[in-house]
Design brief:
Length: 156
């Protein structure tokens, strides 16, 4: 079940996320009851935006760690500068295993004073191959449910 696929909240707007294409100005918000599978499905949806090279929509799809100063351009630069640093390389949702296996992992803990209840570690695929470039997301709980915050994208 992809809970987030039927609802997201951005101000008073609501949209269906089950379609293959996403418009910009989306930030998905999941219910507090979202399962680990729902969180991974959310990260998969983010990866689909990255695969479409819609870095603005991918940026707007999540909240962000303020200290990282994420922008759509910075997200794109991280992807394009990985490995062979090809301007044509991109994230792909699906990837063939290499010397690493793709990790899609959710870890949960007791709510911190900042509302963080867990994290997602999501290994990205580049040009159809699994790689060691990992996106990490914080899972934050607030009165409206769960917000996913992009923390970092780096080699793990």
């Amino acid at each position: 079940m992809r809970v987030f696929s039927h609802r997201y909240v951005m101000g008073n707007n609501r949209r269906d996320l089950s379609s293959a294409s996403f418009s910009s100005s989306i930030m998905a918000h999941l219910p507090a009851s979202a399962s680990d599978e729902d969180l991974i499905s959310f990260a998969d949806a983010w990866a689909k935006l990255m695969e479409a090279e819609d870095y603005v929509a991918a940026f707007e799809f999540t909240s962000h760690e303020p200290s990282m100063h994420w922008t759509p351009t910075l997200i794109e630069q991280v992807v394009k500068s990985y490995g062979e640093c090809s301007p044509t390389q991109k994230v792909t949702l699906n990837g063939k295993p290499t010397d690493v296996s793709q990790r899609k992992e959710v870890t949960r803990w007791e709510k911190t004073r900042h509302g963080c209840i867990g994290e997602i570690w999501y290994d990205l695929n580049i040009d159809g191959y699994v790689c060691d470039l990992t996106a990490t997301f914080d899972v934050e709980e607030d009165p409206d449910g769960l917000t996913i915050r992009l923390n970092d994208i780096h080699v793990m």
